[in-house]
Amino acid sequence: MADPGTLRHALRNWRVLIGGGLLLALVIAAIFAPLLAPYDPLDQDLAAQLAAPDWHFSSTTHALGTDSLGRDVLSRLIFGSRVALTVALVAGILTALVGTALGLAAGFFGGWVDAAISRAVDIWSSFPPVLLSIILVALIGTGLWSVVAAIVLIDWTRFCRVVRAETLKQRRLDYVDAAVVAGLTPRRILWREVVPNVLPLALVLLTLEMGIAVVVEAILSFVGLSISSDAPSWGGMIAEGREVVHQAPWVLIGAMLVLLATVLGFNVLGDGLKAELDPVLR
Predict the structure, then answer these.
(1) pLDDT digit string, tens, across residues 261-271
(2) What is the DSSP letter of 71?
(3) Which structural domains are found in the chain, ordered by start?
(4) What is the CA 243 to chain-centroid distance, rounded?
(5) How far apart are alpha carbons 73 and 141 in whole angstroms?
(6) How far apart are CA 80 and CA 258, in angstroms?
(7) pTM reported for the whole predicted model
(8) CA distance 236 to 217
């Protein structure tokens, strides 16, 4: 199990610092969006359609330009971080809880429990994830929480597979045998001995899953199956920017860069945490 010393050492890892810094910027942008955004992201100024970026930073300029409806690109990027952060946190945590719980049950109890969960994972994993997410959102309706539900229903298998394998390995170690000899019940062995040793791996998977959730939401926004087309979202901005890329490339480039930076932040943070929390790599 990761001790406080290991966690303090992780904070000195350059990947943890870079990934954490990028995600901290995302959190700050999402929380303080009304204060940071120079304009209302929904305000339209048809007289300033596709205005080029202007770095003079006056009250009437647009630092990153405007889109085809005259909406400020920078303001929409900042408010779009709220959608990305919400999906990353809610979908990522729910996916981790469902997948980790099933993986622990399959790996620790074995027998018919393992067989049933493993068969469900195999069947569910046979469907293409992006196509399945589009079908699920189309069936249950569009909207942010529909996107979250679709991500959880699809990606729990990733956690379940990895956590099951790690639980099987932990169950064969000597400390579990010692706990059995000491007379601990299976439930106490699972929660007091196995779970703490599986949690570091689940934490690493969680950071990676958050990045995947942001990408899935962007894909669904791109095809019009996430939040309203008027509401600011990075996927929606990419879809709009693709149509005006020759006249106003800044709409597409800005949304793609912040999406790339966010996913990169989650991935780099996950790699750093894995290097620090995985006893084999450490």
Answers:
(1) 999 999 998 88
(2) -
(3) 4-35+73-277 (1.10.3720.10)
(4) 27
(5) 28
(6) 10
(7) 0.86
(8) 10
